[in-house]
Amino acid sequence: MCDMFVEQYDQAISDMTDCLNIQQCLLPADNRLMAETRYQLGLACTFDKRYEAAVVHYRAAITVIEAKMKRLSQVITGEMPPSADVDPHGFDTPQQLAEKEMDELANIVPDILAKVGSLLMIQLLGYHTKYIMVIHK
Questions:
Q1: Residue 123, domain extent
Q2: Inter-residue contact 93 to 75 (CB < 8 Å)
Q3: DSSP symbol at 30
Q4: Phi-psi bin for 31: left (phi > 0), alpha (psi -120 to 50), beta?
Q5: CB burial string 24-52: b at 16+ within 10 A, e below
Q6: pLDDT in tens, 5-36
Q7: Digit-coded pLDDT (tens) for 106-123
Q8: Residue 75: pLDDT above 50?
Q9: What's the whole-model pTM score?
Q10: Which of 35, 81, 87, 109 has its CA 20 to 30 A from that of 70?
């Protein structure tokens, strides 16, 4: 991820793609780490002006988050047992922890959707600009 800070976007994208491939082999499909990696890939692609790829990664992050929220709602309603990583000595019940995480995730999705909307607008304006430039030549 340090590669993004020094504007080595190709390397950052490559490293994070390798990370995502490992995560997909080892983690459940609704793991928040995969959503975070997809989000970071979206950022790197955005910085590198790979807008279509960025939209794909942001949408994939939302898909992971939605799957996580579905599982958390099942924990809240008692349809599914809580994950094994719940601290048995904690103060909150598994349902309370799931509700807190649901709130966090519900606040993240609109931010990602806003990024997608902005990128789609950039793409639209970019295509129109190219089209206008062709017409005026």
A1: 2-136
A2: no
A3: T
A4: beta
A5: eeeeeebbbebbbbbbbbbbbbbebebbe
A6: 678 899 999 999 999 999 999 999 999 999 99
A7: 999 999 999 999 999 888
A8: yes
A9: 0.81
A10: 87
Structure tokens at 123: 């793409």
d(CA 76, CA 102): 10
| Neighbouring C-beta atoms of residue 135, cutoff 10 Å | 7
CATH number at residue 7: 1.25.40
CA distance 54 to 85: 31
Alpha-carbon distances, residue 31 vs 20, 34, 90, 109, 114 (angstroms)? 11, 6, 21, 15, 22
At residue 91 the predicted structure's pLDDT band, cuts being 50, 70 and 90, is: confident
Domain count, the chain: 1
Nearest to 105 by CA among 23, 16, 31: 31
